[in-house]
Amino acid sequence: MRLMLKFTIPVEKGNQAKADGSMSQAIKDLINTVQPESAYFYVEDGKRAGMVVFEASEQAQMTAINEPLFAQLNAQINIYPALTLDDLLQNI
């Protein structure tokens, strides 16, 4: 199943994590864990944010993906099922 994970990082925690290097490590860990087909990083509502699209086969994987972002960056996380155009056209 293709998922889109969107996260935002509170400004104060983001500044601290950038200064001590833990933000870079947390993002690298996320990328290594999910092996995304795409990843984007941007600013949303004045906060650092990112979105990754990846394949997941089991819901149990979510704990390994979410917990480091919660613990290291105090991130707010939203996960959505995502379809490509081809997926959508095959199902309508």
In words, what does this structure look like?
This protein has helices at residues 11-20, 22-34, 61-73, 85-90, and strands spanning 2-9, 38-44, 47-55, 76-81. It is an alpha+beta fold and 92 residues long. It has one domain: Dimeric alpha+beta barrel (Alpha-Beta Plaits), CATH 3.30.70. Strands 2-3-1-4 form a four-stranded antiparallel sheet.
Keywords:
Alpha-Beta Plaits, 92 residues, alpha+beta, 4-stranded antiparallel sheet
Write a brief structural summary.
With 92 residues, this protein is α+β, with helices and mostly antiparallel strands.
Itemize the secondary structure elements and their pairings:
Layout: E1 2-9, H1 11-20, H2 22-34, E2 38-44, E3 47-55, H3 61-73, E4 76-81, H4 85-90
Antiparallel strand pairs: 1-3, 1-4, 2-3
Helix pairs in contact: 2-3
The largest beta-sheet arranges its strands as 2-3-1-4
Mean pLDDT over the full residue set: 95
Low-pLDDT segments, ≥5 res: none
Total strand segments = 4
| CATH domain topology | Alpha-Beta Plaits
Enumerate how many helices there are, as a single number: 4
Order of helices and strands: EHHEEHEH
Q: What is the radius of gyration?
A: 14 Å
| Dominant shape | elongated
Number of domains: 1
Largest sheet: 4 strands, antiparallel
**CATH class group:** Alpha Beta
Helix fraction?
40-55%
Distance between the termini: 18 Å
Derived structural class: alpha+beta
CATH superfamily: Dimeric alpha+beta barrel
Q: Hey, roughly how much beta strand do the residues contain? A: 25-35%
CATH architecture: 2-Layer Sandwich
